[in-house]
Amino acid sequence: MVETTLDIRFYADDEACVIVDSNAPDDVEEQAELVSFGHYSARIIDRVGPSSALSLIHSLTSLEEASMDYLLSFLESDGPRLEDIDDRRVRVLPPESASPADQAFVVHARFLDPRRGPRMSFTVKPRGLSAPGRGDDYHALASVHVLLYSLLKRRAGDRPYLRRLAGTAGLIGRLAANNQIRPDNEFDVSLAAADVAWGRGPEAEDQGGQSAELRCPACGNEGSTAQDGKAFDSVLWPSRSAEILRCRHCGAGVWLRAGRRPRRITGDLWRAMDSMRTELTGLPDFGPPGGPPRTEPRDESDLLESLKVAFIENGWPFSEVLGADALVSELSGPLGTWKFYAQIVEEQELLLLYSVCPLRVPAERRLEVSHFLTRANYGLSAATFELDFDDGEVRCKTVLPLDGGEIDVTALKKLVRTNGLAMETYLPGIGAVITGTPALPALERRTTS
What we know:
449 residues; alpha+beta; Yope Regulator, Chain: A; six-stranded antiparallel β-sheet; five-stranded mixed β-sheet; 19 strands; 37% helix; elongated
């Protein structure tokens, strides 16, 4: 996990200082700073409100096309001039001269690489100051200027970084000027702005990305991120162990963690991120020039592979069913062991889970067992019992929807437990009806035992 902390301190006489701490190396640290700055700027503008932050927005927007001469001259000053706050200038102290301060905004940004896709934990804690938008916003607005100046100053000799940070600031300003920053899209805004700014910088093509052959989990497109004939574009993500890729054929977002197969980024998350990126670049939504995206269905083995991984992670032994997207295992309880299997129904985006009753119902008792199961189902919410009248098989079914074609491992574990518990609970009653007990007394015996 990459973690970056920004401690923006304020002192008397309009002096300020920023302490930056990160556990990331080299270019990953720089990328984390760009995203963190973008996120913080978006947070302040959203909380203060566009009208109150108008001059700040104008200042940020002017940096998108700023020349290197302008940036260097800006760094020669003692600190940023705050045209929106009584034309005052804040003198920014070097980090080594910093002392504890009673007034500060402390920013914690954590870039997470979970199984389902990229996540960012971002918190801003005021210390001795009112929260942005809940009082005097002088320090909140000034903090963005101070942070920008300090980040530029600490890497004054790295001209590609200066251009990228200025570009990130300018893109955030542009989105704010168009009223496109909201509480629910700060992550999307910051990532898109930093990614576009990074891509415009010198040596933008060399991001240290994956160059091995990959297969898109959405359309089956195969290729790599290598520059010659590449099939995937790299999207900035501050991590050494995970990448965000964009399929050039269908536009899907691909999440690639070290040592794991590519996964499709969930629809809502990817649409928000990619639409913002498209807005800033002006590029088409997806696909190479001159051709529409492919619409072939995703390879059926992809979900089966996800299911295998989920079984392995939970320590469930399994065997495969030849020619079917299904895995077979076993569940057990105090009354014995029974077969359990999971079947993928891809066209309906469902995962069906079945516990197969170890008792087979003879033909003469099937109607009475059906009566028992019908009454049992009336009281169940997540599981359903079924009876095959042809061969007497009884099974308990639970259903897991596949949101965006992804398997939620946590939900799967809960449903497997629910399924097994239902079979364990009603197995004595099924056995009683098979041996001659009428359905209703057998059900009452179960509910009162």
